[in-house]
Amino acid sequence: MKTASKTRLIRNKSLAGGWPSSILLAILPAILFLAASTVSAQQKPVILRIGYFPNITHAQALVGRAGGQFEKALGPGVQIEWKAFNAGPSAIEAMFANAIDLTYVGPNPTVTGYVRSQGDAVRVIAGAASGGASLVVRQGAGIQQASDFHGKKVATPQQGNSQDVALRAWLRANGLKPREKGGDVQVLPVTNADQFTLFLKGQIDAAWAPEPWAARLVHEAGGRIFLDERDLWPNHEFVITDLIVRPKFLKEHPDLVKTFLRVHVELTDWINKNPAQAKQILNHQLQKETGKPLAPEVLDDAFSGMAATYDPLRSSMLKATQQSFDEGFLGRTQPDISGLYDLTLLNEVLREKKARPIP
């Protein structure tokens, strides 16, 4: 009997390298649970949260969202969450709050975000659009020249956004000042949709607006283009939209960001080569986003007012930075933005496509 008991004990211990079978059976569910959890964690997709505006000047985002090109290229291992914003400062605040990873956004909020975070929160990885903003005046406002803006109410999408800074810089250049700086021009930062309503009601006199809102103010609200912002820049080129990313996300997921950039470049080229199709896709997506498509004449004017580009047009960013500093949005010390750009992955994509890298 003693020999048989000893034999059974030896057999039990051999089942798990020395573990008795009773203990093995007791812990087996926990082992299986841990194994299943490990497999589940390995299969969990990466979440990519993308910011954009429902504007013509964010064409790659709208066309790419409509066609699913980003999702197809990134594959099932990446889950995209799209987040719409009215203007740049809101998108930058979302990036600060770790609520988005990558966003299409204007130059002035980009610089502000970079300076405020001491370079920790923002990197420009590509351009997206040039042009696409105008100063529109109401027909009954009595504005024929710059001096007529004395005592007027002028709207911008949000305080500190690119159109807001452009307006303030233009006022300064023409000897005018906002009320808060001792002048008599009332600058009203309100959403694009609210600008349109106020314009129709005669409660504002002008608006510095991005497309398609500038074209809507002209065709649907009886406005008139007083100044196409392109006329203020060399070669009629200035950055209105960049593509930026959180540096931490870029460091953790360089392959993912490079794939996104590859699609961004391909969409840019496709939009420029197929403007008629691009406009239709843009309009369909805008209808989904806003509930209403653009009238054909609005769409044509808005689209013709801007150009899709992956070049971030660095020289115009430098001027925009100076304007933002002069208007008091960047503190008291001239900012150093030498580390703002990281075009390494963009240029890798361009070399793959036999295209000229961006210096």
How would you summarize the topology of this molecule?
Layout lengths: L1 H13 L6 H23 L2 E7 L6 H9 L1 H6 L3 E7 L3 H9 L5 E4 L1 H10 L6 E9 L1 E6 L14 E4 L5 H12 L12 E4 L2 H9 L5 E5 L2 H7 L3 E6 L10 E7 L1 H6 L1 H20 L1 H16 L5 H9 L1 E3 L5 H13 L17 H9 L7
Parallel strand pairs: 1-2, 1-3, 6-7, 6-8
Antiparallel strand pairs: 3-10, 4-10, 4-11, 5-8, 5-9
| CATH fold assignment of the largest domain | D-Maltodextrin-Binding Protein, domain 2
Indicate the CATH architecture of the largest domain: 3-Layer(aba) Sandwich
**By CATH's scheme, which homologous superfamily of the largest domain applies?**
Periplasmic binding protein-like II
| Biggest sheet, spatial arrangement of strands | 2-1-3-10-4-11
The averaged pLDDT comes out at 91
Secondary-structure element string: HHEHHEHEHEEEHEHEHEEHHHHEHH
Explain what you see.
The protein has helices at residues 2-14, 21-43, 59-67, 69-74, 88-96, 107-116, 162-173, 192-200, 213-219, 247-252, 254-273, 275-290, 296-304, 314-326, 344-352, and strands at 46-52, 78-84, 102-105, 123-131, 133-138, 153-156, 186-189, 206-210, 223-228, 239-245, 306-308. The chain is an alpha/beta fold and 359 residues long. The protein has three domains: 2-43, no CATH class; 46-132 and 237-352, D-Maltodextrin-Binding Protein, domain 2 (3-Layer(aba) Sandwich), CATH 3.40.190.10; 133-235, Periplasmic binding protein-like II (D-Maltodextrin-Binding Protein, domain 2, 3-Layer(aba) Sandwich). Strand 6, helix 7 (162-173) and strand 7 (186-189) form a beta-alpha-beta unit. It starts with a helix and ends in a 7-residue tail after the last helix. Residues 1-17 and 35-41 have low confidence and may be disordered.
